[in-house]
Amino acid sequence: MSGNHKRLPYTLFWFCVALIGATAVAGIALRRGESINSMWLVVAALCVYALGYRFYSAFIAAKVLVLDAGRATPAERFNDGRDFMPTHKWVVFGHHFAAIAGPGPLIGPTLAAQFGYLPGTLWILIGAVLGGCVQDFVTLFFSVRRDGRSLGQMAKDELGPIGGGAAMLGVMMIMIILIAVLGLVVVNAMKHSPWATATVAATIPIAVLMGCYLHHLRPGRVLEATLIGVSLLIGAVLGGGWIDENPVIRGWFDYDAPQLAVMVILYGFAAAVLPVWLLLAPRDYLSTFMKLGTIAALAIAIVVLRPELKMPALTQFIDGSGPIFGGKLFPFVFITIACGAISGFHALISSGTTPKLLANEQDARFIGYGAMMMESFVAIMAMIAASVLEPGVYFAINSPAGIVGAEAADAVAKISGWGFPVGVEQMQTLAQTMGESTLFARTGGAPSLAVGMASLFAQVFGAHLLAAWYHFAIMFEALFILTTLDAGTRVARFMLQDILGNFKPALGKSGSYPSIMFTSALVVGAWGYFLYMGTIDPLGGINSLWPLFGIANQMLAAIALCVGTTILVKSGKLKYAWVTALPLTWLIIITSSAAWEKLFSADLRVGFLAHAADLSGKLAAGELGADMAVKAPHLIFNDYLNAGLTSVFMLITWLLVGDTLRVIYCVITGKNYPRSSESAHIPSRLVEAWVRD
Hints:
The protein has 693 residues and is mainly alpha-helical. The protein has helices at 2-30, 39-65, 74-77, 89-100, 104-112, 117-144, 151-159, 161-190, 194-217, 222-245, 257-273, 280-305, 329-336, 344-350, 363-387, 391-398, 401-404, 408-417, 424-433, 446-461, 466-501, 513-535, 542-570, 578-600, 608-620, 626-669, 689-692, and strands at residues 36-37, 308-309. The chain has a two-stranded antiparallel ribbon. The two termini are 31 Å apart. Residues 689-693 have low confidence and may be disordered.
């Protein structure tokens, strides 16, 4: 009886959490025609995450994966003090979160708000708990059990050379698209904004200074370097305001999108070839502080203010007529919001550096499932920050000139005609308040998110610094993005070196500078092409590239779940294979549907082939203006290239699915199949409390 009495408060507590969560989710889903307080979203998210972590992740850890605290991890067995090193679980959690938390959970929900706040919010919550967290957790665990191998190598070992080769090719191509889209978001945030450009540009010499300080001037003095770096970042934000007000100097930082694209391309090449201690490591270190601090401040602002959501739960654009990007609610909301719900990019981190640092196998649940939950919460806050804006302002910032018109009067008339009133004077006042010359057609999601964040920060931390808060938010987003951009470029360069090394061994030497320069130029040239083409796209680039990014990212997640499902079946866990097979099935449905739409839709803003044919016909008939006639051949080629990439991504994914089904069939029927590559069980000898707790 005493045991039952002890369990009663515990049971009642979790029953209350479930009841509160269900009430909050129902309130979000069912309320129509009236505004809703943002705390409904916060409460729903916290309850759903708590239940998912306590029960679903515990079930996976205990029954599906059977974590073993007494088993030596690769960090212990291969400890070399460089790549493999037993590390405290909180340190690993911080590293893992910083690595996976790119701009996706910020930008995706902001763009998806064109459908209303409801669809994106539900997908973020359900997709993360049942899909994204599961993918990260399972991939991390299986990599730990396989000596910290990469996703591509695990695919090759578990599926065979065909599936493994397809996975490696798919990962490489997906990385190119991912980096290009991230670069485009940064460019759209900085174009014709001297304050933003100067602030973001200042982060590069600040990172280099920190690198030199820690490497040469004061080795090991991390606290000193941190104080210097953070102080200089704050100074960069304030100094950007001074530059913007100086009529002479502001011209040095006022560029259009194609010019900024070239600068970002040059930066990406430098980041890939320079020593990691000089730029990459100090920038990542600084950005981690910025990420955690800004996210905490945003959470505080939302809880203190409890702002009302002004965006409706559903907009008329669920039919596919949205101005920010074309496509219906299904399937495009599920690929627009990737990183906040489920992201294939995470699988590269979960099978990259993180498994080499785990000191205790049981920490895989806390780090794999827990860090993804935290990123999902970032996505919820981004949805709130975007939805507290007046809808008319939101659409004025995010709608490209090619849709609403290049003139301010035309844009406000168009947007007001949709039922979201906004005025020219209102937008001019907002731009001046934020320290910008204009906020019209600032596509990409970053500027509108920065406006939402700045409005919240100003109400809590100081309204007289609204322009500074806006540009602080822009720098925060840019650091998120550039961290992923430069790290992704370096990772893609490593992958390309591995591939080319099979044909010419000299190119496979990661320490060879000729190889580094050559492969870096190929990688940067590839994503730089898509970035530059996005800047001259009259629809803003995001219209075509973000859906392509979403399709590629979700297909990468499908690859990871194919590998996970195969390993579960080969490990005798067929009855639990649904844990990965269900999110895999959903991803296959939404990515295949989205890919089909992007290829064959007759809607010119959705279908690549339809848009190319329409543009070709107008060019041949002489119906295009002089400027557009010059750009048209490049845009037509880009449409066909995007269509080709989408087809390749879809073929690779279905090839992986077919190979997965083949191996599962062989396991069930007792036929030959690639044997498990799991390493042998070796008892752990680590006894320190901090690694064995």
